[in-house]
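pasting for ref
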Amino acid sequence: MSELQGAEVLPHYGKPPLNEVVFTLRVRSPGFRIGHVGLFWSKVRDTFPQVASQPPIGSADGQVPVEEPTGLPWIRTWLISKDETRLLQVQQDRFIFNWRQRGEHEYPRFESLRLEAFRWFEAYEQFHIDAGLGALSLVGTELSYINHIKQGVEVSALDEIASVLPFLNAPAAGALGRPRVLGWSGQFELPGGAGLLRAQVGLAVQRQSKAQLYQFELMAQSRQGVVGSLAAANPWFDGARKAIVLTFADLTDMRVQRDIWERRDA
């Protein structure tokens, strides 16, 4: 993704609508078993003292990962930090680091989060080596920015979503008014064949208030074989972040960027 790498300053925001940043490694680790999850947790429990089980993330074709040789479906394990702003997700075919907005915590910026993510990526790889599983075999990478567009902040009513995301402009109001956007998705090619960038919009529910909002997610995903090691993942994440930031600026209304999210270009 050399076309997107460079030192130019990207737009940034004093009050971004960002709710979550997700760094994902898709891995191949045939010797990894469910018991290894507990062993790994014992290594990081001081930082991630809380644990929870979640349904597995399926593959692009909808296949749910199973443990070999038992054929039992994998669970996805959450390891959660004390303040719940950081999250490690462990599944046999992927390892994920999340930053999540909680309370008044400010977004710590991408460079800081990337350093954190790679710290845990490297710890996970070292665990594999120490457990006799060998170095991680990397299949691919993903980077997601998840934004929340809220009633009372960006819009006064949810049916005004097109004032924030102009590409969702609905037809003029008819006998029943304007239709509500329930979901939208589209995708872009990343430069140099590095992968895809997917944009998705959908209704969601705010965790604390239970109020409805719109979730606007931008996810960059590498093509298989483009990123084969942690060293190669670093520049890929840089290019993916740049693609996401520029696409976010392209798809959202400039007035909202400046007046509500406090866009700065220097």
